[in-house]
Write a structure and sequence with these properties.
alpha/beta; Rossmann fold; six-stranded parallel sheet
Amino acid sequence: MSGAHLVTRALSRAGVKTVFSLSGNQIMPIYDACIDAGIRIVHVRHEAAAVHMADAWAQLTGEIGVALLTAAPGITNGLSPLYSARMAESPVLVLSGDSPMSADGTGPFQELAQTEITKPLVKRALRPTRAAELDRDVTEAIECALSGRPGPVHVALPFDLLSQDVQDSDAPGPAAPRRQSTALAPQAAQAIAQRVGQAKRPLVLVGPMLNASRAPGLLARARQALQAPVIPMESPRGLRDPSLGTFASCLADADLVLLLGKPLDFTVAHGKTPAFHAQAGVIVVDPEAFLLERAVKGLGARLREHAQADADDALQALCEAAAQASSPRADWLARVDAAIASRQLVAGTGGLPDAAQPLPQAICGAVQQALDQADEPILICDGGEFGQWAQAFCQAPTRVINGVSGAIGGALCYAIAASLARPDATIFTLMGDGTVGFHLSEFETAAREGARFVAVVGNDARWNAEHVIQMREYGADRLYGCQLSAAARYDQAAQALGAHGGYADRLADVAGVIDAALHSGKPACLDIRMDGQAAPSFASTGVAAQGPH
């Protein structure tokens, strides 16, 4: 067998049946090996799309998501979504073709020190040196991606190793990859649970891997056991996350905050006042030592406990330790719930109800009605101003957003992966007219692969996030580089690529075009002209803006 067959053998042993890829010379041996392994290749139009799809696949299935890219320009095209996957805590394996190892230093086609480039973006980057060890190397990379704080890994595969004949041995290969866990020590669990139990207004903040879509059962169990709100944070807007309503006001009043796998960073205002109460104690549990060191330096005497452990294992341990440690806090739980649910817009925001074109909130309302009627709804939200309206006013049990990285443009790719992972789901993906342009050609991929979703494009003919910033900081006479063509028809472009298209410039027509899209049997693109508005604001928290997207 070839080295490429060892790679696909490792993938099959890990349960991989779908790989997202764009073809290239150096990965043709793996394409060939995928036929024998029965692995489906979803062939995309841009390498970045393949990584975005692998990211969404990982989030929605809990499995390793796999992107297969060609060498040099192929892997470098995938760098931005690698960063997004890292910040989203998604277990993703990126396999890239590479120039022959035997030609290193001689100037072969597409020679590039790939792992030196990807190293800052992934948990591990490696370039195997022996064809016979490719199975083991890929298996260990998958284990790394799944373990600790999940995240992407990169394996650069020299062409000569993939093509080399490897003697097939009767000896068993490596075991199927398993997640390696770092447990919270029982004494630490008891001490932390006791502190949470003694607090009057405790909060538990968790990161993306424990969000409501990926760990709903554990979140509910922890809330009940700890008698404390457990709040996932995965937005680049941090405490101004529109899906959290006025939660920031509760954080400012908490007397104990447990950061459980949630880094002390800009999204929580670095733990400083007024975001945190000056006398609030902080506990930090994290799988990564450098984040514990950051907390020790940044929090000083306010740090009550810190421990190294995986977030999900630690939360389960705290549930067990809290059996006799926590007293009911019905009033505090209700107060936090009400703050998160709050959607009362600050006066002067949200636009006028008699605007000539639909307002973002109204468009989101029409989408929510369709989500409410679906048996298996999935909501996907991109970044930008319209993305924030979507995150505030649309909800579903399963949700994927642009994430802490603040990147925009991936939502269309996420929707394709979501449909392939869950073909019976009703999927809505909401994005602006700027973000849809990043991967518009993937409507062809969606149509070819049989994906089904409704992409709602809120079209205000501008990059509205930047428009809002320039208006605020520099004034209307210095708007620059924000306008997009009002004549552009994204629905018609998608139709030309094989998708269903719909258009509306009146609110009365929005429900109708949504219904037509749902019954089209195709991936759909709805160009909805809207009155562009700044992202929703629900309260003045005294916390500075945490990010532009």
